[in-house]
Amino acid sequence: MTGLSDACQPYRESFSDLIEGEMDGVDAKRIESHLQECSNCRNEMVVLQGVVKTLGSIPEEEVPGELSRAVMARVKTD
Questions:
Q1: What CA–CA distances, in Å, run from 11 to 39, 47, 53, 69?
Q2: pLDDT interval class at 37 (50, 70, 90)
Q3: pTM exceeding 0.70
Q4: Pairwise CA distance, residues 16 & 2, whole Å
Q5: How far is 67 from 25, CA to CA, in rounded Å?
């Protein structure tokens, strides 16, 4: 995304943690305060929230046991 400054990098690195609720109150408030002031980061956060929502709506598929065993056997030999 263009228009994002290097000063925004520390904030952007924390967006996922904020979305997932893995950030304490002080850090969350710091990020939210930045988002109120920075339209570029705010736009990026909206896009990221949309991606997370879309990915969360995709149902998980069961991996066939035979495929799972074959993959794990291959991983162990590499």
A1: 13, 15, 20, 41
A2: very high
A3: no
A4: 19
A5: 43
